[in-house]
């Protein structure tokens, strides 16, 4: 959620992006489906967001969503506007995120896209003449469709180049694995889950799966790969195409990744978000460090202790 705070005398204004409840990551098809589809489904989702959930949103989301025209564009714009300030500016480039994870940066700082946030706020301020209020309307996502629409072509071209590069490298890896049974274990070893480095876990294990499935990689898989890494690593609920949902399901266990939903499962996702929000005021989750986990369970594997608030 985006908040504006100031000193009592109003001399210093601070903008803060944070998440305090369930986090949702929507692939672009999910944004469009929720915007144009079943009105009751749309209403339930927006009610859930307003009740305490937040949406991860990237520059690429905005640019890609600028594609629909006419009534479709208006429906998407209205939907984004109704999300209000309950969003969090997220990076989409997993390489940048992995580099930060190596430095053991805070997970919130790892996925936060400061450049995107700063440019968004500066652009919104320029759109006003002199006086403006930092209300929910100021932080609307809808305005980004106009601002980033011109970048859609360049993002599409970059995506196509990424698709080609990914297909080429994964095909080469696949051929090498046929000649050398140990190739994948050397170049793409299975990575165990580390709660301090969730994006690295998804990224490197998905590369191994894509090397095995290189023949099935298609147009758009480059960006879908990025969506899968960021959505599954940093959200609680995320939407992906069926193929990518299956790939995520095949990652090593145990892990603490997002619950993943395909096109036919939006209703179930909304119900799960509603349930998570309803429970959020009743209990808290305490994530234990490795030493305490080993002392309590005999293993450093992921575990959670649920404490009911009194």
Short key terms for the protein model shown above:
310 residues, alpha/beta, five-stranded parallel β-sheet, 15 helices, globular
Chain-wise SSE layout:
Layout: E1 2-6, E2 13-17, E3 23-25, H1 28-36, H2 39-50, E4 54-57, H3 59-65, H4 70-83, E5 87-89, H5 94-102, H6 107-111, H7 114-126, H8 143-148, H9 152-179, H10 183-187, H11 198-212, H12 221-234, E6 237-239, H13 242-249, E7 259-261, H14 266-280, E8 283-287, H15 290-297, E9 304-308
Parallel strand pairs: 3-4, 3-6, 4-5, 6-7
Antiparallel strand pairs: 1-2, 8-9
What does the model show?
The protein is α/β, with parallel strands linked by helices. The chain has one domain (2-308). 54% of the residues lie in helices and 12% in strands. It contains 15 helices and nine strands. The strands form three sheets. The protein has a five-stranded parallel sheet, with helices on both faces. A two-stranded antiparallel ribbon has the order 1-2. Strands 8-9 form a two-stranded antiparallel ribbon. Helix 13 links the parallel strand 6 (237-239) and strand 7 (259-261). The two termini are 27 Å apart. The model is unreliable at 283-289, 291-297 and 302-310 (pLDDT under 50).
């Amino acid at each position: 959620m985006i908040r504006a705070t100031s000193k009592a005398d109003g001399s210093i204004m601070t903008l803060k992006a944070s998440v305090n409840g369930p986090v949702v990551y929507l692939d672009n098809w999910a944004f469009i489906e929720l915007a144009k589809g079943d009105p009751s489904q749309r209403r339930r989702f927006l009610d859930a967001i307003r009740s305490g959930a937040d949406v991860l949103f990237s520059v690429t989301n905005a640019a890609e969503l600028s594609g629909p025209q006419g009534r479709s564009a208006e429906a998407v714009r209205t939907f984004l506007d109704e999300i209000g300030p309950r969003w969090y500016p997220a990076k989409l480039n997993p390489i940048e995120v992995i580099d930060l994870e190596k430095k053991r940066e805070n997970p919130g700082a790892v996925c936060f896209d400061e450049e995107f946030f700063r440019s968004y706020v500066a652009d919104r301020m320029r759109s006003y003449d002199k006086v403006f209020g930092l209300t929910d309307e100021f932080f609307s996502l809808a305005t980004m469709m106009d601002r980033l629409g011109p970048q859609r072509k360049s993002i599409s071209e970059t995506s196509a180049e990424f698709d080609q590069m990914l297909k080429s490298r994964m095909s080469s890896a696949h051929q090498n694995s046929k000649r050398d049974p140990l190739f994948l274990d050397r170049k793409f070893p299975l990575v165990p889950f580390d709660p301090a480095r969730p994006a690295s876990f998804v990224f490197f294990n998905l590369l191994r799966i894509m090397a095995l499935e290189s023949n099935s990689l298609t147009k758009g898989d480059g960006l879908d790969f990025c969506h899968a890494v960021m959505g599954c690593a940093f959200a609680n609920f995320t939407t992906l195409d069926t193929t990518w949902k299956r790939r995520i399901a095949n990652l090593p266990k145990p892990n603490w990744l997002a619950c993943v939903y395909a096109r036919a499962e939006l209703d179930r996702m909304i119900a799960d978000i509603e349930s998570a929000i309803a429970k959020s005021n009743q209990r808290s989750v305490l994530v234990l460090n490795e030493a305490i986990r080993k002392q309590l369970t005999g293993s450093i594997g992921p575990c959670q202790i649920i404490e009911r608030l009194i």
